[in-house]
Amino acid sequence: MASKWAGLAALLAASNSAFAVAKPISARDALSPKVEIDYANITGRINGNIKEFLGIPFASAGRFEHSQLYTDQLGEFDGSSYGPICPQKTTGSILSMNSSSSLILGKTSTAIGPVVGALADTVFNTIGQTRSEDCLLINVQAPVDATKGDKLPVVIWIHGGGYEVGSPFTATSETDVIRGTVPNYNIGGLVRTSVSLNQPIIGVSANYRLNAFGFSASKEMEEAGLLNLGLEDQRVAMQWVQKQIADFGGDPDQVVIMGESAGSWSVVAHLLWDEGEGATDLFRGAMALSGGPVMVEKAERAQPFFDNMVERTGCTNATDKIACLKVADFDDIMASVNDEGMRNSRTSISGLDLDHPFDGKHLKDSPHRLAAAGKMASVPLVTGDMRDEGTLFSLLAQLETLTDEDFAKYFKDIWWPKASDAEMAELMELYPADITQGSPFDSGVLNAVTPNFKRLAAVVGDFSFQAQRRNLLAHYNTSEQTVWNYVTDVSIPSAGLLPDLGVLTHLPVLGSFHAFDVWFYMFAGLPYGLSKNTNAYQATAISFIRTLSPNNHGLDLADWPRYSEDGLETYNFKESGPEVTKDDYRVEAMQFFNDHPDSFLI
Predict the structure, then answer these.
(1) Looking at 159, 356, 362, 514, which residue is catalytic?
(2) Could you confirm whether 261 is annotated as catalytic?
(3) Total number of domains in the chain
(4) pLDDT given at position 279
């Protein structure tokens, strides 16, 4: 077994420093690969064993307008670098509580905010990258020898970031010299491994409009039919793939969509889009990593944020407020964006943030209701969560929940104002003030930063991610459609060379936290030679993208059984090697959310 892992690690290491090609390419193409699509002749770049065509305009849209497929002729186009990312919320200033907006609840100043904010800026906001409203750009990463007619399977990666920040890449992931030592948020990491395993795929990623520019919600936006513009951008990117990907060597009939966090919410939203009609014209499979059918209110709940933007831009007295906003000063709009709460701020991931409300047009109801009614596309699905989804979002919010009274008030006032006192009391019983039952789970009395930190993290993680996944699985057509479920545990990576010593080898405070799997495993932030979770994540994902089953990888991994309502089969990714378990933890607590959805809308 050890020799198998060592040999695979050596193969992958070599692929990062040399071209792993199966057929010859010219010296000129090796330096500057080219592809012709119907509106541009694109020159890309070589990056290890893959070629990349970056920053390609795929759609056009004015501010607060629907996006349309790009049609202008570009002629010769330089696709050797990423273009601008979409405007981002400035997480550092929000997390440090420097905002003067009364929209944010906060009682205690802290020095933690700037540190967490700087980390978030590094990982999500890609420090140093140009931002622009003209940001609807797409990237294609393919094996270095891929050519038109190869008909390679395709994965469309939808990035996360809470619909507030993020892009398909980070500044660190582009620096080869430190690859394997930092978080990597770039689909190229998966494409590289697919080439090394001789199971090639093509990766596609795209920007989509964020925060106020892509997810403003209000009665005005609803009446104008302008809700969920960011989701529409994603949909147009899928249409672009159908039209153009064959020129890069891809097969438009073999497309899988994959997303994490807000990207996972988006994947599920596209399963529910138009109640599933037309989905199979765009993709044949889906991977939803940490995010399911959210419980959302109507657009009016976000009205205060829209009104604040209107006031900030001087559009309060305008007859047509949207028309006024379309020509308003960019900096004034960004000021209003930065007034809002942040998902990992003191208000955590609550209803103070922008989500995708149901719009009565493409999402005809709240996603959780559409899922419960079975009004969604039925395609092969992989879905799952990290063990401790809520810890990252509770680092600052714990400062608002130091006492039991504060704990209940925090959720009642900020998250669920429609929940009754009786429902809140029952919720407190289901998530007791017992640090041994909190998150990070199975860590006993450790990691209790404040008295209610682990309790808070348990509630936030279960409501925001785990319960959503359970709701999706409960109503997905698992009897006729193949579905695979997973949960991931993080420990100090040792490639199985050291024994699992339980809490002694788990990450302190954060545990198996949100997004770690994508940063370090799926895109190989931790390489094969260091992490068996990376091996299992990448091998099963590549297999699913290629064959619609996670088991056709040819490696010595435990078989991943289909999920069923009776068996609750779940693949548990662990550093000691994956094993099959059951999705039977905290059933009563999570079912409470799903049994009372109208009380827990955000």
Answers:
(1) 514
(2) yes
(3) 1
(4) 96
